[in-house]
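Q: My hope is that you can spare some time for a protein that puzzles me. Underneath my words sits a plain record pairing an amino acid chain with its backbone structure tokens. Those tokens are not coordinates but codes from a learned vocabulary of shapes. Thank you; the sequence and its tokens follow:
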Amino acid sequence: MERYILQTKNLCKNFKGQLAANNISLAIKENSVYGLLGPNGAGKSTTLKMITGILKKTSGEIIFEGHPWSRKDLKDIGALIEAPPLYENLTARENLKVRTTLLGLKESRIDEVLQTVDLTDTGKKRAGQFSMGMKQRLGIAIALLNHPKLLILDEPTNGLDPIGIQDLRNLIRSFPEQGITVILSSHILSEVELIADHIGIISNGILGYEAKINPGEDLESLFMEVVKKSKREMR
């Protein structure tokens, strides 16, 4: 029997009469990488912000590990949404120290996550001097501190060079083996195709497709078909 770490049922978010998320029903399998695809402004970030408690849902359900989601579940969820939340005048270790102190975690956890994201040799270099890829990896390290069961990454490859993208891709693919399920949002089809096990395609706030990625599938044609269909339905 397949286990789902997260499900949403008819999840909606209404901003002043405009539906940014319209009856979104996701099913995220445990220990997998789920790619949430969609054009910019499709409703991906809004959906992820509801799952992480940043935004309050207008209606619908969020089910986490078989029970209705509550803010207590955030202890098992790590997230990097939009820009990494860094203190740019602090080192990588100091940034993580702030969080371990706030969360009441052992300081040994800092070395563990720095090793996971390959940032052990940054020394006294301040986060403000990091490359975009290093900042993204530090943001992921912060999200990993609390040993999350679910890791949510919103457009994590934005602004990265090809080497940074490949490093991040390899890192994300390693997480399911560590018992971490990943939801990855992106508008870059080729990247999601290389990373994800399953995909959902959102356009105009509507989830138009959800399935396992099949080898050789023309993801671009599928994506365009879903986007065009959602536009027709909006008219």
About this structure: The longest strand covers residues 4-15. DSSP finds seven helices and eleven strands in the chain. Residues 149 and 180 are 5 Å apart (CA to CA). The mean pLDDT is 91.
